[in-house]
Design goal:
single chain, 366 residues, alpha/beta, Rossmann fold, 2 domains, 7-stranded parallel sheet, 5-stranded parallel sheet, 12 helices
């Protein structure tokens, strides 16, 4: 089956390069291009594409406004083309909230060399978007980055009232395609008293800082971009920066972060497997692992190592995933103790961490 793609971008050069990249794969075909959303609307009706690539800054209507209307009236898989800037990253996060499946970082200026070098990644994103679960936008996405001092009703109430956690507990979360919204759904439900949390989300380095600040503005816990060699504190989530692998080491009874610019693992840096393998080694049965929506297999084998070390692991179920790739691989390996809908994961993590369910070392279970 050939995936039909419509390119929406006001740059003739960008349209040409994207067409070359997309048509270079036998299973992908550009069926049309449009320089603005007005023409794109007519092309969608005429050509019925499977996937849309959408620029942000365009004449007549910007990409975000068009995406908002599209996801209300005719939901379809969309891959955003976003600039590698602070403003670009904030706009991208808004697009993902509105229902875009993924994004392609757009090089600054007229040089397209970086885009061509990432051709296979772009093709994979389009393939992933085609298989994604897309939902209609029922209401406006929440406004960007409200202050922590805003009304607490902006976020859901904590799932447990002041639970008591054993010392030494640790939560490790991995995600990819669709993960920004999935991670947010989990973290906003956590109470402020949570043990330390370490997270890998596949994102470029120019985006992870904005993502961490966005989460921090919405959650009761503190969320920050991880730095090298910092102590992992209770009530804090540490997001791997887009340029480095994040792993955990232990000095005495203290967990510490460790960043590395080593080779990509499963084509990713940061990689979920790197994080999960380190958590298996240092936290063992004191850890809870969570693998959320994402394309590919990153995190599956690391989660299996966590389970063999005695950790309790939760995989997101197929029905609630945008792309059921990484969790499916973990389930197939026997790495998950539970498979749950996204909305149930936070409560189950808290339950497993609480003193009522103390960790117990278990034997290896293949």
């Amino acid at each position: 089956m050939t995936i039909k793609v419509l390119i929406v971008d006001d740059s003739p050069v960008m349209r040409l390069v994207l067409r070359e990249i997309i048509d270079g794969a036998p299973d992908l075909k550009v069926v049309g291009t449009a320089p603005d959303p007005i023409e794109a609307r007519e092309q969608i009706k005429l050509l019925e594409p499977d996937v849309l690539t959408l620029d942000v800054e365009m004449p007549k209507m910007n990409g975000i406004d068009f995406l908002r209307r599209l996801m209300k009236l005719r939901p379809m898989p969309v891959v955003m083309i976003s600039t590698l800037t602070e403003q670009g990253s904030q706009t991208t996060l808004e697009a993902l909230e509105l229902g875009a499946v993924d994004f392609v970082p757009k090089p600054a200026g007229s040089s397209m060399e970086a885009l061509l070098q990432g051709a296979e990644d772009i093709r994979d994103k389009i393939r992933g978007a085609h298989g994604a679960r897309v939902r209609a936008l029922r209401s406006e996405a929440p406004p960007s980055a409200p202050a922590k001092s805003a009304q607490p009703a902006k976020a859901p109430p904590p799932v447990l009232a002041a639970p008591r956690f054993d010392p030494g507990r640790l939560v490790a979360i991995g995600a990819s395609t669709g993960g920004t919204e999935a991670i947010k759904e989990v973290l906003v439900r956590f109470p402020a008293e949570m043990p330390g949390i370490v997270i890998v989300q596949h994102m470029p380095e120019t985006f992870t800082g904005s993502f961490a600040r966005r989460l921090d503005s919405l959650c009761r816990i503190r969320v920050k971009e991880a730095e090298h060699d910092e102590r992992i504190l209770p009530g804090t989530a540490y997001l791997a920066p887009g340029h480095s692998h994040l792993s955990v080491r232990r000095i005495g009874g203290v967990y510490m972060t460790e960043l590395s610019r080593g080779e990509p693992v499963n084509r990713h840096r940061p990689a979920v497997d790197v994080l999960f393998n380190s958590v298996a080694a240092v936290a063992g049965a004191h850890a809870v692992g969570v693998l959320l929506t994402g394309m590919g297999k990153d995190g599956a084998r690391g989660m299996l190592e966590m389970r063999r070390a005695g950790a309790w692991n939760i995989a997101q179920d197929q029905a609630s995933c945008v792309v059921y790739g990484m969790p499916r691989e973990a389930v197939a390996l026997g790495a998950a103790d539970e498979v749950l809908p996204l909305t149930d994961i936070a409560a189950r993590v808290v339950a497993r961490l609480s003193a009522a369910e103390r960790p117990a070392l278990r034997s290896s279970r293949g």
